[in-house]
Amino acid sequence: MSARVSPEIDGAVKSQFPLLERSVHGRPIVYLDSAASSQKPAAVLDAMDDYYRTVNANVHRGAYEIAAAATELMEAARADVARFISAPSADEIVFTKNATEAMNLVARSWGGSNLGPADAIVLTEMEHHANIVPWHILAAERGCEIRWIPITHDGCLDLTDLDRLLDGAKLLSVTAMSNVLGTLNPIPRLAAAAHDAGALLSVDASQYVPHLPTDVGALGADFMVFTGHKMCGPTGVGVLWARMELLDAMPPFLGGGEMILDVTKEGFRPNTVPHKFEAGTPPIAEIVGLGAAVRYLEGLGMDAVRAHEVSLTGYALRTLTDRHGDDITVHGPSEPAQRGGVLSFVYRDVHPHDISQVLDQSGVCVRAGHHCAKPLMRCLGVTATTRASLYVYNDTSDIDSLAEALDEVGALFGR
Amino acid sequence: MAGLEDLYREIILDHYRNPRNRGELECPPAHRSEGFNPLCGDEVVLTFEMDGDTVTDLRVGGQGCSISQASASMMSSAVIGKSTDEIRDLTRAFKAMMSIHEESIGGDGSEALDGASDAAGANDGTLRLGDLEALRGVVKFPVRIKCATLGWNALATGLDETVGAS
Fold first, then answer.
1. Of A299, A325, A345, which residue sits at a domain end?
2. Do A369 and B41 touch (CB under 8 A)?
3. For testing contact with chain B, the best of A383, A386, A407, A409 (most B CBs within 10 A)
4. Which residue from A164, A192, A181 is spatially nearest to A329, judged by alpha carbons?
5. What is the 8-class DSSP label of residue A184?
6. In chain B, where are the structural domains located?
């Protein structure tokens, strides 16, 4: 089977990811869990290694050469990330620990100073817990209301009652792409509806930024969060982007070094944006790695990345259905252009834990569980799903391996 | 290297496909206890009847993977008709078997199992894990140990609450 599914991205990409050379249980690794965390290209590993070997020093306020170089590298990465999502200014990029912390920052800082008992927040039934629990915590403290946009039977948002749900709401917080269903949500339309209702739009783009060309202005978002480790970057670094006027007005999130202009025994004056939100020594090497990841993806071209994944998703849907027929049901939209390469499926009546355990013996890495989306699991009427998710380094041979390994599941748990 | 045959013994698959004592007893008079694995969403719902110190009947509900459901099924067969003390001994022996480090399991693992029985203070032959020994291979798959102990933890909690309340 040919490894080539799109002209721009070919088999050479896989060879740029050192981990994908290893084997598991004596079989070549087939990594299909990029929605949980992506693998890292040599360019990212080298950038972080070089940083520690030749530059390492704490950032800001250091007068000596390598401290200045470290600061420069970190701020260059901020500019890389801003460019990658078409942000108007690098100062609008706030580095956090991960997307979860970024969403908590929005909830604590913006939510904490803008939401009260009479207010409502609108979420959707397909959110990751990272875009649910921070709002639950805030709602419990402030007495504000949480409303839910339901989903349709094919895993899309049911926007029938959108205007009613947004009426009087102060914030709509929604995922740009479901980490379970792969559904791409109509963010510009949701932005327009939210703004018409006087609400702001917060976007969980953790599954979106790594896979599609992203323009925060075109999306119409007011806040957007995503994480480094799902986009070829390291763990330990995430991003909050927000419009400058919002960031300017928001109080600090965590207190400590770097986020202050002055501290006295009586109080403190916060630093300017984005440093106001970056208390303590930042994850410098990780930020440098994220910058390298962004440049790596730009080198591939995000249009090419998206084209590759649409093509491979179509191949996966066809292959799994051709080989396994009624034994397999894939959740979410059936049209590859309306979704990302996240394939949650049910195979016969075999439990996802058992499926992933058997697939592992063939070197096939898939995730089993509720994918941090328990409200969605309840909507789907399941406790867990098996999820295979694709990225730039996957090819048709990976899909073929998955389809073949499912035969083993059928043989072991056969009716 | 641990193979799937270590995990999915035929007797385990049999209990998964044909679970014993499946269902639910009316509460009251039965007592109820639930086990829940937040990592994977597996759940075991136990309802059981007591006569004095003896578990006279037990039913298993809930849903989950083959290991959690088969282990609960095997547990139900093992504990019905036993006293709370006997069940606690059995639970200790089973959990000891589930906590043996993989490297200590050589060959057929019988040595390690003897160790488990010793740990439970029950190597005198009065306590036998019987079919439950088929779950021994689970320790080679550390992620699945919580699946195997789910029902046992639920029963231990349920017995503690029941005995404590009586």
1. A299
2. yes
3. A383
4. A181
5. B
6. 4-165
Collapsing DSSP to helix, strand or coil, B18 comes out as: coil
Q: Does B4 touch chain A (CB under 8 A)?
A: yes
Q: Are residues A293 and A350 in the same domain?
A: no
How far is the C-alpha of A250 from the C-alpha of A269, rounded, in Å?
13
User: Predicted confidence band at B163 (pLDDT cuts at 50, 70, 90)?
Assistant: confident
Phi then psi dihedrals of residue B90, to 5 deg: -65, -40
Residue A321 CB neighbour total at 10 angstroms:
16
Express each pLDDT in A249-264 by its tens digit.
999 999 998 899 999 9
Whether A277 and A398 share a structural domain: no
Please tell me whether residues A137 and A282 are part of one structural domain. yes
Domain count for chain A, please give it: 2
Percent of chain A with pLDDT over 70: 98
For the annotated catalytic residues of A, the residue numbers are 372
ipTM for the predicted complex: 0.79
Amino acid, single-letter form, for residue B98: M
Other beta carbons within 10 Å of A14: 19
CB of B96 within 8 Å of a chain A CB? The answer is no
| E-strand stretches of B13-96 | 31-36, 43-51, 54-63
CATH T-level topology, domain B4-165:
Sufe protein. Chain: A (3.90.1010)
Nearest partner of A182 among A317, A358, A5, judged by Cα: A317
At B42 the pLDDT is 86
Domain housing A364? 14-31+302-412
Listed residues A280, A299, A318: the one ending a domain: A299
Q: Establish if B144 touches chain A: CB-CB under 8 angstroms.
A: yes
